[in-house]
């Protein structure tokens, strides 16, 4: 069964460093998403992406965040200068239709020290 | 703005007990509704979804949910839980007019005593 894959599974970084989280969505999907889950809290929407541009973003997704689809398979989330409060599990998801079922990756745990 | 409320933060049941997890949403327009499950150490997986039609939808592993439009609710049910149902359950809502964003509730942790 096709799946969404994410790397790294866990990254530890120092505050102020740049981090890139990578995702390979399911190959025939066109809609891509990033969500995050701070430990013990809800799953929060960050950004959605379609046709090589951001469709929608939340208030969390400020200028420190960016997304990119650098080639036909990868979908990346970059945090330019990490803060302690960026520590969370980041989930990538994809879907084949808008408003459709999201297929999630296993997540990348980011720890900012 | 859309919001999703799951009032049960942690539910503890014995095996074979019946389960109902509440979910209410705040948007008055046309919505798609989902329940996702996150087993310990695993990623989010879809349990079931409602787009249109029969408001009683059946999902995997014996779960079902009923969409009651007048109550803005989409409660998840299972008649007899098993120890393997121990997981975190998330209700999610998508405003059809805003196709790109699915909003999740805060989740309900379900613990099943063997």
Question: Would you write up a description of this structure?
Answer:
- The complex is a heterodimer of chains A (113) and B (114).
- With 113 residues, chain A is an all-beta fold.
- Chain A has strands at residues 5-7, 10-13, 19-24, 31-37, 43-50, 53-57, 65-68, 75-79, 88-95, 103-104, 108-112.
- In chain A, the strands form 2 sheets. In chain A, strands 2, 4, 5, 6, 9, 10 and 11 form a 7-stranded mixed beta sheet that branches.
- In chain A, a hairpin with a 6-residue loop joins strand 7 (65-68) and strand 8.
- By secondary structure, chain B is mainly beta.
- Chain B contains no helices and 12 strands.
- In chain B, strand 8 and strand 9 (73-78) form a beta hairpin.
- The model of chain B has no long low-confidence stretch (mean pLDDT 92).
- The interface between A and B is medium-sized, with 24 and 23 residues.
What's this model, at a glance?
With 113 residues, chain A is an all-beta fold.
Spell the H/E element sequence of chain B. EEEEEEEEEEEE
The helix-and-strand class of chain B reads: mainly beta
The description of the largest β-sheet of chain B is: 6 strands, mixed
Overall mean pLDDT of chain A stands at 93
Strand content of chain B: over 45%
The helix count of chain B comes to 0
- Work out the largest interface and the residue count of each chain: A-B, 24 and 23 residues
